[in-house]
Amino acid sequence: MELDPVLIARWQFGITTVYHYWMVPLTIGLGPILVFMQWRWMRTGNEMFLRMTKFWGKLYVINFIMGVATGLVQEFQFGLAWSEYSRFVGDVFGAPLAMEGLLAFFFESIYLGMWIFGWKRLSKRVHLFSLASAVLASILSAYFIIVANSWMQHPVGVELVDGRAVMTDIFAVLTNSTAIAAFSHAIFGALMVAAGVIIGVSFYQLWRRRHDGIDTVDAKGHVIVGAAPAIPGRDALDHRVWLRSLRIAGVVSLAAFVGVLGTGDVLGKLMYEQQPLKMASAEGACHTGTAFSVLSVGSLGSKDCDDITPILEIPGVLSFLAKGDFTTEVPGINELLPVYEERYGTHLPEDEMYGDRSGEEIDYLPIVEVTYWGFRIMIGFGGLSAFASLLALWLTRKGTAPASKWLMRASIASIALSFIANSSGWVFTEMGRQPFVVAPNPVMNDGIFMFTAAAVSPGVSAGELLFSLISFTVIYGVLLVVELFLMRNYVRGGIASAMPELAKESEDEDKDDADSRDGKGRGHRDDVLDFAF
Asked: pTM for this one?
């Protein structure tokens, strides 16, 4: 069977991007929560907030490093595997990517380094400022990346010059309505991811304290906080760290879910205006109507829209998603396909840039199974994540987690919910744009669009792409194992894993007790590299 370089290149970009995006929302979402925790420590001097900052900060740094390692590949792919795309959009795409690399990522790296190595070497205010600056830079980095991606979804501020998109208005590109809505949606989604991780880990640690017999409950189920002096960090303050972390994350998760719903509603209405066929395929809507499909079935892989059979529909909901009312008729797939064919042609141009695909008939219909279920997985798992947060708050209302091992396992598994929701949302967004790599702006209709078939590097063979696909998949698989191993070890190690000084203090106390009997004393030396390592 002949290998298709376009398909392999798309698989490679999809796998590496989705993997990289598993790191991104945790970094972005955990950052503001960390800033809040360290700010509370600076204002109150409460060691609880210091412990929270150091533990969650350790996970933040591990995840950040993995995100950098996997993110470097992304920009190189544009030149190596997608050179025709880079040539077409380079004048536009390069600007936000340059801002992301030279401005946002530059400051993010510097200030994060100051924060990692600045414990007890910088003043509390400067140290907090360095963390806040790194977090702000990571958010700006996400904004510039989403600006670039949103231009692919809805090109603005450009004109076509000699077959290339040339930017004429940087302000229009940076304030693209799609970018603003997608950015806010992604930030709220990232907060849900970070909150889900904090809730899952905190619930586990509260359960573990009960399992180890450190904490008990009274007749009414209220916690009786204990301590294990022989285990560094497993004191009464340790209980407060996990309970307060869970409480903070629960509130963040529920508030972020409201934000996700609001920004998602805005994105749905923009999608109706800018990419109506994506909206129709997300609903499996063959014909014009108002009903939202709760469940539809069809023949797997069929390109015949009439094979799709609605099982359960809610009248008016699709109209609300598209226009904010319950009566607007939303065009279906069968009505939209002729419109696309009339505007953008029925066959790919006879041009060498399309290779073997020159003159091939264009299939404007995205893979409906992917868009339909991707949209529902995004909504469903996002809702489940919010429900899990609410449930965790309820189950710990008496100050500890239930003793049930199944609930503990469910809390760990719930961490994956928001990751799945975020990933499926991006898969839906990108797959729904096909067959375009740069979707046309239906308002401008000025020829600023590009078919995916024309975007791949002409000098790269299918075999070379297959080799890099397999290589990246294996390498990224190894990195995934490394990250999960590190995260698991530090989570199981608890606060002491992020604060080795707690173990040293315990050792020092024992030695001081022994030394005091001999008339000797011993001071404590803290090494900042303990946290960095």
From this structure: 0.90
